Amino acid sequence: MRRTNKAVLLVVLVLWAFSYLSLLAVYESPGFRTEYVKPILSVGDAGTAAVIAMLGGFRNVAAGLLWLRSDYYWHMGGRGWWKMYPIFQTVTELDPHFILAWRTFGWHCAWNLNSEAPPDEKPRWIREGLQVYKRGIDANPDSWELYMEVAWLYLDRLREAEKSIPWWELAVKKPGAPEYTWHMLAHAKERSYDWRGALATWQQAVRKFPDDSVACRWRNRWLRASKDPNLLRNELCGVWARDGLMRRNRALPPKPPPMNCPPEVTEQLLAK
Amino acid sequence: MRAIFAISKNSVGEALHRMMFQVLLLFALLFIVGGTFFAYMAPQEEDKMLKDLGLSIISVFGMIIAIFMGVTAIQPEVERRTIYALLAKPVRRYEFLLGKYVGSVVVLGLSVGVMGLVLVGTLYVRQTVLNFPLMIAVGTLFLQLAVMLAIIFMVSTIASQFMTVFAGIVIWVIGYVQSYLHQLSEHAQSGFTRYSLQLMNVLLPNFQVFDLRSQVVDNLAIEPQLIFAMIRYGVLYGLVVLAIAMILFNEKQV
Q1: In angstroms, rounded to a whole number, what is the distance separating the alpha carbons of residues B24 and A123?
Q2: pTM of the full predicted structure?
Q3: Is A266 within the bounds of a domain?
Q4: Which helix (H) or strand (E) element contains residue B78?
Q5: How far apart are CA B157 and CA B211, in angstroms?
Q6: Is residue A20 in some structural domain?
Q7: Which chain B residues contact residue A53 at CB under 8 A?
Q8: A254-267, pLDDT tens digit by residue?
Q9: A182 part of a folded domain
Q10: How buried is B192 (Cβ within 10 angstroms: 0-12 exposed, 13-18 middle, 19+ buried)?
Q11: Which residues constitute the domain of residue B52?
């Protein structure tokens, strides 16, 4: 080998060492995203992991195309809904930051597949939906949408307002959380009969969103109720009565009333 | 320097007049604009689909153009014996190689630039706001392709055109799984597996570090520290590969 080439080779080795150090600096950089790589290590099926690895930079495109396919099965209805499950699973594995996919996946399990499943398997699909949302939160801890979905599952699907409150509280703290997350937190407290907590939440919502007319209206409503025991009784009994109607429709056992709610009062409130 | 400039100017002119290059670029632009039809089929996620598809199309077609430029730069000159006329003049071998590389990088930059402009323009029509992170992502893609082009040049100094094309595709695929191999090496049970994976990480390029697709699609901030580290890695690795190409070309019997 010529002498010049030997000198160049020496320079090459030094530059290579520096380039590897630069590569390590990239790995350590705050913006370098490696969290999408970690699910690969936890994917049980080696075949899936290998396919995801080979897709490399095109995993998002593959996820997008599969997402389009899921729409076809949605419109098929019935057995098509069961075929959506593995598609959603693959989409969320390929693109763990696809928030809409996590939301739709969890909703599909807890609402649609739950309704299609035989009676003894219905609770399983509620749990599955919850697990999906929690996996989505692990991959996207700053997503207010996913906390909201968990909270909504407890509040609307299971009618367990008390269990939904911690999740609404997490959702409202995340960046970008809109006004209605505050509304739902306040309503969840109302349904738990924590009217003082609800009023405080409406007041916080008005401070955060001064133009929010809905929050203003509800704050004023609870402020009036806090000063008038009859009005307060009507509000709380009204919440209990409406909740009781929804629970009856879903074949859920009734909750005890927050106070003495005379039947004529609740009938009047339901008639409104 | 004059020789490098003259050779690069000539190779830019040659490439721009080639029918295959024009057809490739046209197809790429059609695919990018055609991506809007896929986006319409994805409710609530139109912009995400468009950015994903657009950047992927730029990456794939950029790879094809880089392979095409690398394969047609040196080997055809050697096979047609036109290289003798060039090297008979006071043009050193490294000047010839660098001139060809610079010319190919310019053509690659023009192609990626045009494709990027079309993508940014398509999104601008939908959002009526310029997407600067997307422009940065296109820039880092260009850097990745320039590194890949350097590797293709290195291979083309010693291999046939077919082997260069094959090597280019294999290196592109390996480049995209390097981050996974790096993560796997940290979890490997056996010492041999761990060191082998780490050696691959040292020797082979990692193209995933230049990929800002997930940041752009998820509307996350792109840290300047990451960009500087990325540019440093790309430039140093590219220089290493070009230096090896120069050594191999110097030793080659033409």
Answers
A1: 54
A2: 0.78
A3: yes
A4: helix B75-80
A5: 28
A6: no
A7: 177, 180
A8: 888 888 787 776 66
A9: no
A10: exposed
A11: 2-251
